[in-house]
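Title: Request for sanity check on TolC family protein prediction

Description:
We are preparing a figure and want to confirm that the structure record we downloaded matches what your pipeline produces today. Could someone re-run it with the sequence below and paste the raw structure tokens into this thread? We only need the token string, no images.
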Amino acid sequence: MLFRTRALALGVAIALLPAPATHAKSASRTLTLSQALSRAVASSPSLAAADREIGAASGRAMQSAVFPNPELAFELDNAFGSRSKRNLDAAETTIQISQLFELGGKRDARMAVAAAEGDAARWERAATRLQVLAEAAEAFARTLGAQRRVAELEDQVDDLDRLTPLLQRRVEAGASSSAEISRGRLATETTRVELAKARAAFQSARRELAVLIGETAPSFAAVGGDLSRIGAPPSFDGLMARALQTPQLTRFTAVMAQRRALLAAARAKAVPDITAGVAWRRYEEDRSNAALVSLSVPLPLFDRNEGGVIEAQQTLAKTDAERAASRNALTVLVGRAYEALRGSYEEARLTRGNVLPVAREAYDSIRSGYAEGRYTLLELLEARAALSEASLKEIDALVSFHASLASLEGLTGSALVLSRRDK
């Protein structure tokens, strides 16, 4: 039997379904996974920064298309001198307008760079979004696991408390010594200590989750979900194929385009631009007018932007190496999360199917036998501790499973189809 985990917010999903929370005082104070993910996306500073970068890139794209401004110049010559050049009698007044004409495809190259920067910013934003969702899902799984751990230890304390009347009756009947009451009380208080630690861990996890969803203090009393849903992961090759299509790697297409455009811009910079001007000149001496035309171009004798071209070439050449390094790092991360998922799945499945039933059966048998005097208190407490340890191990395995699942779905950018073989 196959089941598909719930797709949440464009790709990241985990098998944690909304369910009534053990410690919720009201439904409105129970946080579900879908709520946590939507709030994490809405409040993420990293995504806000990525959105601003996209906005900045759009501004650069707009600016890259504009032409250079024309220049207006005013010149007054042969004025306020001596003798014949006194005051403005022989002055020459010139008003000139000039325009720079970019050659070598500089404007097109500049526009290509800006467009590629915008694409790269959007890919980076998509990668950041997957990371935000994965981190929130992992934090939710850890919080849900801490909450369930508290519930398990509370059940254990209640169970041990229920032993006290039974111990008292055995002591009164002379079947046990009064030391057994102290021994039972010690086991109960030791469990209470573990419960206090578990509650503190839950509060810490709750605060960490609150920060990820944009809250300075948790507004929720509990989280609602179902840790028990597990399944065998698909093949590693299939997951790796998906991971290679995620923004972590596909963004290098935009990076490559951006660096090619930068190289074209560096080469175009070596081509001199032309400045053309038209002027009107007034001669006060004979009150005549004349027109002037100017044309100027820099001589590329010293600066041909050779260093800039080399820099752009090397930056472009290192893109393949950066892509290969990112692919290797992604392969390691996917492999690590995949093995953690497989290991925690097997641990949870075997604990649930083999260890817990045996531990529960042994405890129930010894508990009923203890009331009849067939077992000692030590055997009863050991059986109860074994049952509790098995339950807590299952919880730890389930938390590891869902945290690894969230990590994998963040790395692959899609929900995983799990083979349901845990029943």
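Thanks, this matches our download. Residues 2-67+102-270+305-419 form a domain with the Outer membrane efflux proteins (OEP) fold (CATH 1.20.1600.10).
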